[in-house]
Write a structure and sequence with these properties.
Elements lengths: L1 E3 L2 E5 L8 E7 L4 H8 L7 E7 L6 E5 L2 E5 L1 H4 L2 E5 L1
Antiparallel strand pairs: 1-2, 2-7, 3-4, 3-7, 4-5, 5-6
Amino acid sequence: MIKVNSSVTLTLADLARGERARIESVQAGDATTLRLLDLGLVEGTEIFCVRAAPFGDPREYELRGVRLCLRRSEARRIHIVKD
């Protein structure tokens, strides 16, 4: 988790199985980030954590009717707000 001015900002990697959240922002900087944006991981999108692999990585998420698997390192680039 990242602390900003005494408030806690969560990332998609912090979302537990069965929880829903809304994407707040995506950390920019490289080709991986651009690919995440192309896949629909944009600000305001609701996302749901469907399940995780036995050791927790990767995890399966559902957004806009599509299921997507992301590694924890990729999920840490996506900042969320729980509903």
